[in-house]
Design brief:
The structure is a homodimer of 402-residue chains. By secondary structure, chain A is α+β, with helices and mostly antiparallel strands. Chain A has two domains: 283 residues, 3-Layer(aba) Sandwich (Aminopeptidase), CATH 3.40.630; 114 residues, Alpha-Beta Plaits (2-Layer Sandwich). Chain A is built from eleven helices and 16 strands. In chain A, the strands form three sheets. In chain A, strands 1, 2, 3, 4, 5, 6, 14, 15 and 16 form a nine-stranded mixed β-sheet that branches. In chain A, strands 7, 9, 10, 12 and 13 form a five-stranded antiparallel β-sheet that branches. In chain A, helix 1 crosses helix 3 and helix 9 packs across helix 11. The longest helix of chain A is centred in the C-terminal third of the chain and has 21 residues. The first copy, chain A, starts with a helix and ends with a helix. The interface between A and B is large, with 58 and 58 residues.
Chain lengths: 402, 402
């Protein structure tokens, strides 16, 4: 395995290498298809039997001896964001393959089938349907769900699939008994706390809102303070209050106002309208409900006090997803045995694992992301850290499949 | 005068009428030149002798009998903003002309010369040099000041003037003894307080700043609250604090954050950078200094507490300008005699009067602006209110020139 992981990541990253030193490998595009073919050829050489399913998920198996056939699954997604890095998604595929290859060398054929998935699509960067690959594989998405979904060039998702010979007609996987996804953290907690491994206990739920504050545009010179209905002022009170509440609540809650628009947005006009996004995440469903309920009440109270109107629209919701206690324990024990410093933590980002976890026992292994940077060519994880992640994964797969 | 003012405003507004029901009459443009010619012809018909000076200011005089020749001046600006209304600027010209015509009818020739100015340019909407006309007329601007100043089409201000035969070489006016500018309020104070006339005591000073807040962009899901350097959060604390200070200070202080930009401005990324404008106005120079000093200190303290960097750049400063006590008294006494409800008030907007007031005794008369709207085709003042303004102006000119 030594020195292989980085080499293999760079090799796979050649498919979709873009002009800005990153990877742009959108689902069902030419570079994506070439990556799938390249991966298939390599895995066949390594002794896997490889299938491509009806949505383009690649499934590479090492058949187990036991009857009935049970599958222990690992892997991650093959698609990338626009101008992404070489670790996000790729690491779970390459790392999973190397872990299985290592187990075969050390222990020979497994009892349960070891299977590697390269999910067709997770990011939702080409079509607005994130995690389509894993959802389809486990019966959580159907062809009719993507009716009318098109990319920015107007190409329909179904046409893009048909072009490559995929029907999208898929029977859900029935025989998978466990799934472990290896991934970069995409945050800086492991780096800051000097840990090599994050054992993910849950993936956060999210509630996203669009908040529109309506005041009255007025001349900045001729309108006394007392006659104003200043949308910027009201918004600044709301945002400072929301983020103070989030600070007070602390981990695992996070709240972000990432997008802010003002109208008319002219320096000498009192703003009449402010629109901002609010992204709230928590690992506990009722805590998430409670805090968003409180935030909405505070926004309403501030609007009233500031004499402005406010509209709060929910536009995305996902529930928190706990990982499998059994696999979490198994991963932590592996780290302890190997004396690898680890941290039990949640994932603040979305992953294929959150789709799969409610159906079969699932867990995730994180490795540090330098400065927490992700979705960028600057994404970086040190090779030793990558190898440690693979080592912990291999140990867990061994326990589950042998 | 009856029914004339609105008719004449509409007549003058034909020069530069735009496709969106407003006036677009930028200095030295064709419609601006046509308006100047039209105005000149009308005023000559009404018995004025009309000169156009070397920057394009129109000066229409009714010669006084006294020696040496002393001038009592009224008027306002001929240029408009893009898609402006028919009252801003125009009203001071048409109203001034009608006031003088009325005085001539009632009282015959004046002792001092009565002069009407249609200033070439006040708004700075074509070239970034506001109040060029009045500044030039009183020796406060010189041809070399506009070296390198061009409009958005790359036409230099000097070339635009030369095209019309203006040299910009101008001797400052020496014999003006008083100036009164009639103008719409461009705010809603008179309307809200049910007053017909505003007697302007001073024009506010302004300090404008650009505030740049530098934090760190981070993933909205994977970055715990405690690890963030959130530029949006820091900015919201700064803005809510600034505007609270302004509320507490109250009239005549106003503070406005009218423009706000966030980077990267993506809903699921903690903002790394926020840039906002701050516009602070007050009628008293030391109060203006004190409050901006306090605001800057508070911004610095919040930046420190929020662990972000901040840069505050001053990009525009003007001092408050008091109007002439003598003319203020004269205007207030006129209102009282005529039982016209008036309000002593300051101007929160800039006017030619602030250029002229430090040199010769100057005052302004405001009439109400419906809903405070200005610089828009929706600008509106009721005709009776327009007539009252002219009446008060005529009374003051009578006292000063007869």
């Amino acid at each position: 395995m030594e020195n292989q992981v980085l080499e293999r990541l760079k090799w796979l990253a050649e498919y979709g290498k873009d002009s800005q030193s990153g990877i742009t490998r959108l689902v069902y595009s030419d570079p994506w298809l070439q990556a799938q073919h390249g991966l298939k050829n390599w895995l066949i050489q390594e002794g896997f039997s490889v299938d491509i399913d009806a949505v383009g998920n690649l499934l590479a198996s090492i058949k187990g001896a036991s009857q009935p056939d049970e599958v222990v699954l690992t892997g991650s997604h093959l698609d990338s964001v626009v101008n992404g890095g070489i670790y996000d998604g790729q690491y779970g595929i390459i790392g999973g393959a190397l872990a299985i290859i290592d187990l075969l060398k050390k222990y020979g054929p497994p009892k349960k089938t070891l299977q590697l998935a390269a999910f067709a699509e997770e990011e939702g960067s080409r079509f607005p349907y994130a995690m389509w690959g894993s959802r389809s594989m486990f019966g959580l998405a159907k062809p009719e769900d993507i009716d009318g979904i098109v990319d920015t060039d107007g190409i329909s998702m179904m046409d893009a699939m048909r072009e490559l010979g995929y029907s999208a007609e898929l029977s859900p996987k029935q025989n998978v008994t466990a799934f472990i996804e290896l991934h970069i953290e995409q945050g800086s907690v492991l780096e800051k706390e000097n840990k090599d491994i994050g054992v993910v206990s849950s993936i956060v739920g999210q509630q996203r809102f669009l908040v529109t504050v309506l005041g009255e545009p007025n001349h900045a010179g001729t309108t006394p303070m007392g006659y104003r209905r200043d949308a910027m002022k009201a918004a600044s009170f709301m945002i400072s209050r929301i983020l103070t509440l989030a600070d007070e609540a602390g981990d695992p809650l996070v709240a972000t106002v990432g997008n802010f628009q003002l109208e008319p947005n002219i320096s000498n006009v009192v703003p009449g309208k402010a629109i901002f996004t609010l992204d709230v995440r928590h690992t506990n469903e009722s805590d998430l409900e409670n805090i968003t309920h409180l935030i909405k009440a505070e926004i309403g109270a501030i609007a009233k006090k500031q004499n402005v109107d406010v509209k709060i629209e929910a536009w995305f919701t996902s529930k928190p997803v706990p990982m499998s206690e059994k696999i979490i324990t198994l991963l932590q024990e592996s780290c302890e045995r190997k004396k690898i410093p680890f941290k039990p933590m949640h994932s603040g980002a979305a992953h294929d694992s959150q789709v799969i976890a409610p159906i079969i026992p699932t867990a995730m292994i994180f490795v540090p992301s330098q400065s927490g940077i992700s979705h960028s060519p600057l994404e970086y994880t040190d090779e030793q850290a990558l190898e440690k992640g693979i080592e912990v994964l291999a140990e867990a797969l061994h326990q589950l499949a042998y």
